[in-house]
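hiii, so i know i said id send this last week but things got crazy w the move. better late than never?? heres the sequnce for the chain we talked about at the cafe, plus the structure i predicted for it. fair warning i was half asleep when i ran it
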Amino acid sequence: MRTALLLLWVTCAQLAESREPQLVRLERSAPAMGTTYSVDLYGANAGSLQAAADAALEEAHRLDRMLSDYRADSELSQVNQNAYRRPVKVSREFFDLLSACLAYSRNSEGSFDVTVGALMRVWGFYKGSGHLPHRAEVAAALEHVGYRHVILNSFSSTVRFDTDGVALDPGGVGKGYAVDKMVAVLKENGITSALVSGGGSSIYALGAPPDEPRGWYVGIRDPKDGNRKVAEVYLRDQSLSTSGNYGKFFRAEGKLYSHIMDPRNGFPAQGVVAVSVIAPRTLDSEVWAKPYYILGRPWTEIHKPKEFRVLMCENKVGDECAWVQ
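okay and structure toks below
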């Protein structure tokens, strides 16, 4: 009798296991804000995954209509075109994001600055690979750079510039913000396992893939050798963003100039080759990768939050990338 009951229990357990739904994997991508956004999802139902992926990518397109500097009708472009002549009323979402950007600027001692657009143009990075400007051009552009030129009115949700030629640039914040918003949409659609990427440089890992409880595997490339990894991490409900001088750069007079601009002096930052930041939010990891890159290891060691992990590759001969303690 006991043997029969045991056999019956084993058979029922096997049947129950066989009825467990097999997880489906879905990968989708779409262009927005001058880059490519992608989602890698797991779930029990292909139709539900497709609907969630479509909703997340539509969120990226919605934010493109708000933040793109390539679209003349975006909120950001409208502010750039009109905020010196008159206060420009914006959506509360745009206002809150811009408020956060000004706070990042204050907390980073001006090394992050959303008004860096004039410098990006004079250095040729706005819609090109860059070129070396005259120092007089850099000095002239600096007259139009500085987060203190942005005047916000919370009561009316308006933005105003106190000097002509100020240009907001979403390059240091847009991808991180979009990835976080896409993740929120996936959660609303019942997704618990996903990897969301903005251009490959800002990612968020939601949950873990079914075959790896530690989280989503991410290899961090060696900035001096693209075929080599300097670190391997598993992310679970965390983001990772990387800023490096290998993404967009040019060489002039025997020197490399990258697109990562120091808004305080008007020149591309030197001294660091790449910085990767792991943080709870992608907005934070993307934004803070720039100040850490610009200000270097000593400043980062003092100011980085305890919950952040920072991998820094300094521009020294023979120097290895290392985690900032």
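btw Helices lie at 2-19, 46-67, 75-82, 92-107, 117-122, 135-142, 174-188, 282-303. thought thatd interest u
miss u guys!!
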